[in-house]
Amino acid sequence: MTASYTRKPSTAQEKQLLAQSDQHLACGIRSASINPEYSMVIAGGRGSRVWDVSGNHYIDYLLGSGPMFLGHSHPAMVEAVQSRLAAGNSFLLTNDAAIELAALIAEVVPCAEKVSFHNSGSEATLYALRLARAYRGRDKLLKFEGAYHGMHDHALMSAQWTTKVADFPQAVSNSSGITANTAEDVLIAPFNDLQTTEEIIRRHADELGCVMVEPLCRTFVPAPGFLEGLRELTHELDIPLVFDEVVTGFRLALGGAQEYYGVVPDLCAGAKAISGGLPFGFVGGREDIMALAGRAGVESGRHVRLTGTYSGNVMSCAVASALIGELRQPGVYEAVNAKGERLRKALQELLLAADIPARVLGEATAFQPWFIDQDVIDHRSSLGYDWKRQFKLQDLLLDRGILKGQEKFFVSTAHSDEDIDTTIAALADLMPELKAG
Ligand SMILES: Cc1ncc(COP(=O)(O)O)c(C=O)c1O
């Protein structure tokens, strides 16, 4: 894949599959672009590459929206699945793969004295919220404007799609079908504004079940002292602080954002980076809060229900343990961060040289160009960004054999130095067209 890459048009087979998709799928699977010209049916992936049904190969920075942190079809994942599958997967019963993984997570994730297993990031944040509410005996959730915590009703409040902003702490629903009462149980605060957040938390302390935060809020990096201030305040008021580590967990560091930023929450919700794309999520946290999900919860009359049919299934757990084993090898994070940082820096420099107003925000393996001519620190300051240019970048990259999501570039351990070089060359090549709009 080079700047001279030529994307093949959809074959008859791909066109037919796309027509069937329109006919039968309501939604739930994404397109690679909002532009129908770029519709594709994905056929496979290995390492840093994916390919479509028409035979186009792409360097993949979408990575399934983050979970393929070690690349597609990692050999350790394939081996874990193959060696366990013949002996069954789903039993609803305690199994050795789940026990091994719980012990590993407790060892590497700072807040995780105990762990529970689920099937997605949305489930993990939902159950972390429920546990925190039960612990505190209060109903309300404080979350940050623009933060995304998944698809459950309380999470879909003033999330990343919010364009009509309300006065803090009023929540704005992001979906029809959610009851009006739900919004009353959610308070919204501005990320990176500790003073306003503290005022809201102190005013509503008696109603709050927890404060939930994406420590890297989408790609808004926490200002120095922001997470530390939240920690101090919630500790003082005994309000559980929940980190949504669905993106940052095992990605920013083995111990996630809590290790990377050095702030340890009471609970965390994790998912993507270690399951090789198999459905997976977990809640980890303080023993006394997590205990409400077990016998102690039953005995105290405050039992929290959190398990489901597939919780702790063998495949997801065996793969996650195997991939944590890979991530623990010396030098893994140094290498992936160096590659990500090189790409991120090159993108910022190329945008600057092309005189395209933009800020590239995030961390080395999860970053995003915001096309805007002012500093962005939170959702509200990002609102004037040029979303058309964002989508245009996606299409110009596809033309050059590079796949990226609508928001972030995700970098994996499978990306080679050559992939990064190729991507930088493609970015340099597309800048004049991106500038032209
Ligand atoms: C920070 C964050 N929390 C929660 C979720 C929801 O995870 P899932 O899609 O696995 O339900 C996502 C998904 O992108 C996320 O980015």
UniProtKB/TrEMBL annotation:
Identify one Pfam family in the record: Aminotran_3
What cofactor is needed?
A: pyridoxal 5'-phosphate
Q: Which residues form a coiled coil?
A: none
Tell me where the signal peptide lies.
none
Q: Which InterPro entries match?
A: Aminotrans_3, PyrdxlP-dep_Trfase, PyrdxlP-dep_Trfase_major, PyrdxlP-dep_Trfase_small
Gene Ontology MF terms: transaminase activity
Q: Keywords for this entry?
A: Aminotransferase, Pyridoxal phosphate, Transferase
Domain of life of the native organism: Bacteria
Q: Which family does it belong to?
A: Belongs to the class-III pyridoxal-phosphate-dependent aminotransferase family.
Q: Which PANTHER family match?
A: GLUTAMATE-1-SEMIALDEHYDE 2,1-AMINOMUTASE, GLUTAMATE-1-SEMIALDEHYDE 2,1-AMINOMUTASE 1, CHLOROPLASTIC-RELATED
Quote the protein name from its UniProt record. Aminotransferase class III-fold pyridoxal phosphate-dependent enzyme
